[in-house]
Amino acid sequence: MTDPIADLLTRIRNGGMASKPYVDAPYSKMKAEIVKILKQEGYVKGCTQTDERTLRIYLKYTEEGKSVITEIKRISKPGCRVYSKQVELPKVLNGLGIAVVSTSRGILTDREARQANVGGEVLCTVW
Q1: Distance CA 123, CA 40 (A)
Q2: Is the pLDDT of residue 69 over 90?
Q3: Which family does the similarity line name (predicted)?
């Protein structure tokens, strides 16, 4: 697998379209931090580490049974990295969505990165 973050996002996207209660993905610290951001922003219910190699992500749905995540998209790819300065960080849907950014202070949302006055690699956008 050349892009494990894209694999994680695809698993979340496919699980939401299939109305699964949870999806499993191979564990890594970066993936756990990305899912922690998604939980903090209200896009997933939570996650647990089932064993040392598996991360279980519990998906969140609306009252009508639709996935809370409308779109989740990988921005920076292994073949074409996308870096942004603090002032150039993207605003997703005028602040309704989030951009997940890998900074020198860890994995942050675009809002947190602006407040901390740091830029970094834009990993993905979610709304």
Answers
A1: 17
A2: yes
A3: Belongs to the universal ribosomal protein uS8 family.
Question: Which helix or strand (DSSP H or E) is residue 37 part of?
Answer: helix 29-40
Shared domain for 54 and 77, answered yes or no, is no
- Which domain, by its residues, includes 100? 72-126
Residues 7-31 have pLDDT tens digits of: 999 999 999 999 999 999 999 999 9
d(C-alpha 100, C-alpha 55), whole Å: 19
Q: Among residues 68, 6, 9, which one has the least CA distance to residue 43?
A: 68
Tokens 């610290």 found at: 29
CA torsion angle for 11, 123, 52, 61 (degrees, to 10)? -40
| CATH number for 14 | 3.30.1370.30
> Could you read off the pLDDT of 104-126 as tens digits, one per residue?
999 999 999 999 999 999 999 99
